[in-house]
Amino acid sequence: MTTPDLDHIGGHPGDGPGDDRLVTQIRVAEVAAAAARSTPGVAHLQQGLWGLVQQLGAEAWTRVTGRPRPDTAGTEVAVRVDPVTGAVTVTVDVMLVVDGRRPAAVVAGDVQRRIGGAVYAAFGVAPGRVSVHITDVAVPG
Amino acid sequence: MSGAVPAGLDQAATTGGPGPGAPVLDDATLVARARDGDIRAFEQLVRRYQRRIYQLALRMTASRADAEDITQEVFVTAWRRLPELREDAAVVGWLYRTATNRCLNLLRSRKPVAEMDEATVAADRPADDPQRGAENTARREALVEALGQLPPAQRAVWLLREVHGRSYDEIAELVDTTPDAVRGRLARARVQLAERMTPWQ
Amino acid sequence: MAVNELGDHLRQGHPLPCGRLVEDVFDDLDRGRIDDHGRTCVHCATARRSLTTLMEATRALVDDPAEPPPNLLDRIMQAVRAEGRRGEALPLVPIDDTGAAVVPDLGPVDISRQAVAAVVRYAADTVDGVRARSCRVTVDDADVGALRIEMTLSLRYGAGPANELVETVRARIGSALHGQVGVRAGAVDLEIVDVWPEEGP
Predict the structure, then answer these.
(1) For residue A102, what pLDDT is reported?
(2) Which structural domain, as residue segments, surrounds residue B59?
(3) B127 has a pLDDT exceeding 80
(4) Across the interface, do C80 and B163 touch by the CB < 8 Å criterion?
(5) pLDDT value at position B144?
(6) Distance CA B176, CA B183 (A)
(7) Which of A49, A53, A56 is closest, CB to CB, to B81?
(8) What is the residue range of C125's domain?
């Protein structure tokens, strides 16, 4: 897999968020979603209301990558580039349901660490913030 | 055509006002309060929009029972999912989106033979101005019947734009396509409807 | 006749036999304008009639008199109330396996109030002879980092001394919050509001 160069996102000031940034956000979301899903205690990620809107990026994604858009449900990623310094900030919001076998607060801490590590490993940028929203605890019955 | 839309929306807004004595609050305020668990705030939202959602569902499904069920589902889901609604003012768009999806899902699962039970639907007659009322009723019935012959997605596009005044961008999101494709579908729907309306003339 | 001819052409795309697009005729109608060709062309006239019929019918549908049934609002609100009191998410401190707060702070964590209430209710229900009724979860202002629980209970007649049952419920709630949520129970207010007979609930 080619590593997208985050430093070049939005390299044309004034362009606003274009396909490049959208595609990069989806790439980051894909990595973050996989990291969250693999964390013990996570039952599943929860599709957010506005996550549905992001499916709009599917066309641009497929045009650029030639792959179907990955399932990033429940993961929202923002990539910002400081117009002056060029510094890249990545923030991740993940919405998930825990399975009730481990304390939700422990699962959340694990999810944050795993997402941080996975995003850094894939893109060389550690997320400035990983917010975890637990929408449900799967209780039996 | 666009000139006719605001009148319908105004009407919906006045009939959907808050209960007696309650101040009229904007959507964003109501959504913010409802998110905090304020059921009365949510009830105001339901009063404000249930008519529009019901009418959309009714004209999509041509069944009162289905339209009622869909309207109920849409609002109960909205209540459940309020915490996820990031932009408080966007609640109307969200309601339309959910309603449209439910309608399309329902129509997909219906057997073709059960497609229409318009006999249960076409009989609403307004009380005022009998002459004009009767004409309008006949026009409406002919249109409802013609609508029933459009493919569901096209029907949705036409209703959302022409009757509910939603934007091309919003409709594009709703039916998962581009604004240009929406314009194309809308034009096609208009032509087909106009063609089917002609015998009534 | 002209109508059928028009129909055939409409299906193929939308140019009229005279070369005009139906879309353009529609736009002209919508804007209330007409040019020399439009005034004299029989095809344009036919299209205009069809489209005018459609536009009139559309206005009639915008003024749709179909109303949701009067009890729909109540049905919706009943279902919403059944969902229970719902508020904003509760903040949660991420911890490691030893229970210590995660350092460095990577970002905020929250959990839905409903989710915590479900855990707490379920914990109370596991006590034989006890049923959770209402449940309110809030941040305990008097105990930083803990959650306050206010719950009403129904007991089975003859299930045992009420104060023992209540203490068992309290303990179960505490361990459920610890084990499933990862947070301490602060004040746990339990109130018995009902007793049900031996045979059933």
Answers:
(1) 95
(2) 1-115
(3) no
(4) no
(5) 92
(6) 13
(7) A49
(8) 87-196
Chain C touched by B2 (CB under 8 Å) = yes
3-state secondary structure C109-132: EEECHHHHHHHHHHHHHCCCCEEE
Q: Is residue C116 part of a domain?
A: yes
Q: What is the pLDDT of residues B40-70, one digit of tens each?
A: 789 999 999 999 999 999 999 999 999 999 9
Helix (H) or strand (E) holding C26: helix C22-31
Percent of chain A with pLDDT over 90: 42
Residues of chain C whose pLDDT is less than 70? Answer: 1-13, 81-88, 199-201
- Residue B124 belongs to some domain of the structure: no
B82 at C interface, C-beta within 8 A: yes
Which range has the worst mean pLDDT, A18-22, B107-111, C170-174?
A18-22
Give the gap in angstroms from C-alpha C161 to the nearest C-alpha of chain B: 35
Q: Which of A47, A49, A93, A96 to mutate to test the interface with B (most CBs of B within 10 A)?
A: A49
Query: What CATH code is carried by the domain that includes residue B28?
Result: 1.10.1740.10
CA distance A119 to A88: 13
Residue C187 to residue C142: CA distance in whole angstroms: 9
Domain count, chain C: 2
**Contact between B163 and C64 using a beta-carbon 8 Å cutoff:** yes
Whether the per-residue pLDDT at A138 is higher than 60: the answer is yes
Would you state the structure tokens that stand for residue C127, as one six-digit string?
Answer: 């006590």
Instruction: Measure Cα distances from C66 to A109, B50, B97, B154, C36 in Å.
Output: 53, 12, 21, 22, 42
Task: Beginning with the edge strand found earlier in the chain, give each strand of the sheet holding C146-156 in spatial order.
Answer: C130-139, C146-156, C184-196
**Inter-chain touch C102–A129, beta carbons under 8 Å:** no
What is the residue whose two structure tokens read 């959602």?
B53
Domains of chain A: 6-137 (3.30.70.1350)
Tell me the chain B residues in contact with residue A52 when contact means C-beta distances shorter than 8 Å: 97
- B75 pLDDT more than 80: yes
In a domain, C157, yes or no: yes
This complex has an ipTM of 0.83
CB C198 within 8 A of CB C156: yes
Q: Hey, are the CB atoms on B94 and A95 less than 8 Å from each other?
A: no
With contact defined as 3+ CB pairs under 8 Å, the chains touching A are: B, C
Write down the pLDDT at residue B58: 96
| Contact call for C65 and B125, based on CB within 8 A | yes
pLDDT of residue A17 exceeding 60, the answer is no
Does the residue B126 lie in any domain? no
CA angle A27, A31, A37 (to 5 degrees): 140
B7 and B59 part of one domain = yes
**C96 and A109 in contact by Cβ < 8 A?**
yes
Contacts A133 to C, Cβ<8 Å: 89, 109-112
pLDDT digits (tens, 9 = 90+) for A54-103: 455 677 788 888 888 888 878 888 888 888 888 889 999 898 999 999 99
